[in-house]
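Appendix B, Record 12. Input sequence as logged:
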Amino acid sequence: MNLPKYRNDEGIFLTDQQAATRLNLGIAAVRRMSDEAEATIRIGRTRRVDFEKLVNFVRREYGM
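Logged structural output:
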C-alpha cells in the first residue's frame, strides 16, 4: 500500500480521520455532519472535508 508522504493536519481540506481528531468526535459523526453542511469534497476516490465550513456549521447548529 502506498502511504502518503505529505499529510498536513493543519490544512484546509482534511481527511475524515483528521477532522474527527481535531473536533474530538467519531468518524461517523464527522461524515454525517460534513454531508449535512455540504463541506464534503471529492477528489478522485478520496474524500476531504472543508474544515472551516464544517466548524461554522457545528457552531451554527449546535450553538458553540
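The longest strand covers residues 46-50.
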